[in-house]
Amino acid sequence: MIDNLLNLADEEGLNLEIAIDEEQNTAIETFNDQVNQYEISNVTIYKLKGVYNDKVVRLTTEDISNPKLLIDELINNSRIIDNMDETTFAKNIDIENDYSPNVDDDYNVIINDLLNLNSYRSSFPNLNVVNIYYTHRYNKRSIINKNVELVDSSVATYIYGELVWSENGINQTGVFSVVDKCYDNNKLKNKVIETIEDMRQKINSVSCKSGKYNIILKNQQVFQILKAFISMFDAEKIDNKLSPLNDEYNNKIFANNLTIVEDPLNKKLIGRRLFDEEGNKTYYKEIIKDGKFITKLYDNRMAMKENTMPTGTSGGVRNFYILPGDKNFDELVHDLNNGIIIDDLAGLHAGANTLNGDLSLQADGYKIENGKITNALKSIIFQTNIKELFKNVVEIGNDLEFYSEIGGSPSILCKNIMIVGKE
Asked: Sheet containing 34-52: which strands, arranged edge to edge?
């Protein structure tokens, strides 16, 4: 069918490229001792990009069974639009052609493992809810035109857990995630135990006095912030003055020990990608090096506009993270000595201003005095600016963890961050 589309387009004078995204998902949900969902789905999306009479036209569909209808629609669209945008088509690139078919996990074993987590409710009578979501995702991507066929694939396992601890009429919810290339029951059980212990301590949380504190921001929360602000490195955002880093390219803006990279070719990570959505080869790159902003992210259009090369990031970054340091989390806590650990953030959709970099987020965590936890904290507000936060990094942990194909982070220790409390 793809050949029919390309041949028919060629006959009609339409230069055509087809991007194919095939995704197979197996989803399982357990609630305590019940299986609420077991579903296998397959979805294929076709993105057609054509040039007809110098007009760029696009069409997205799940059905290519009628090639003539699709070609006619693209040509008709070209007649009613005024855009004369420049575009490029994928070219042959040197990539490792090592994609492989999907290899499913043993889902019967996984279902049994997930249901067995309900046994923690017997060990911990205050644990009322053990709700686990498991997804095995296989993705195959192709870009095809009359000269090129690029193919890539990836596989990942995502587990999301939600637990509820009830004590003295108070409910404390704990959430966690486990993301990896393959299923690991031991890692899952460890996360459950960590979350239970966290909920037990937080059931009697208090607030704190407002002021500037030295803080440890845990790895998942660092990634949440980094993910919210990835667009600040985008060349188009910077060109349109829509980034906190508008005038910061080639400047030292963060701490000397902070380096942020994109590592899309790493075979060990779930975000591995050989080419981006426009067919450009991906590569390892430093975005921030020793605190200096050295790489803007370009798609083809912005690269042509600024007479430079695309960065293989069209459609988004993959395996984007802060390079880890040498100290484990306990050593970070020892070095913090007196301050606050923040291990939960809420409100990023509204509390992160991607134009000026300001952050004002509801947070939970722990008060640390003389290197020891003294109180669990809630009802506090984490207030800073993205440039202040990363400029004030004192130490970086070695606990690098990935939370999606986009990337991950280690924990960081920062000085003089504003915390607003209710004491």
From this structure: 55-61, 34-52, 15-31, 127-145, 149-167, 170-180
CB atoms within 10 A of CB 201: 14
> Average pLDDT of 194-218?
95
Q: Residue 258: which of 85, 417, 388 has the closest Cα?
A: 388
At 53 the pLDDT is 87
Average pLDDT in the chain: 94
Q: What is the pLDDT of residue 84?
A: 60
- CA 333/CA 413 separation, integer angstroms: 9
Asked whether residue 83 carries a pLDDT value surpassing 70, the answer given is no
Q: Which residues of 27-46 are buried (b: 16+ CB within 10 A; e: fewer)?
A: ebbbbeeeeeeeeeeeeeeb
C-alpha torsion sign, points 138, 26, 408, 45: positive
Q: What is the mean pLDDT of residues 91-97?
A: 80
* Neighbouring residues of 92: CB distance < 8 A, sequence distance ≥ 6: 147, 148
User: Dihedral of CA 211/329/411/392: which sign?
Assistant: positive
CA dist 89 and 313 (Å) reads 15
Three-class DSSP category at 93: coil
Q: Alpha-carbon distance 53 to 63, whole Å?
A: 25
Q: Could you count the other beta carbons within 10 Å of the beta carbon of residue 330? A: 10
E-assigned strand segments in 168-227? 170-180, 211-217
Residues present in the chain in total? 423
Q: Which of 272, 270, 313, 288 is nearest to 402 (CA)?
A: 270
Quote helix, strand, coil % in the chain, to nearest 5: 25, 40, 35
From 388, 350, 20, 64, select the one nearest 212 (Cα to Cα).
Answer: 388
Q: Tokens for 317, please give them.
A: 């970054």
CA gap 293, 287 in Å, rounded: 6
**167 DSSP β-pair partners:** 170
pLDDT in tens, 142-171: 999 998 999 999 999 999 999 999 998 899
C-alpha to C-alpha distance for 392 and 382, rounded to whole angstroms: 14
Rg of the chain in Å (alpha carbons): 24
List the structure tokens of 348: 């990023």
Q: Residue 422 — pLDDT band, cuts 50, 70, 90?
A: confident
pLDDT (0 to 100) of residue 234: 98
Q: Phi then psi for 132, rounded to 5 degrees?
A: -120, 135
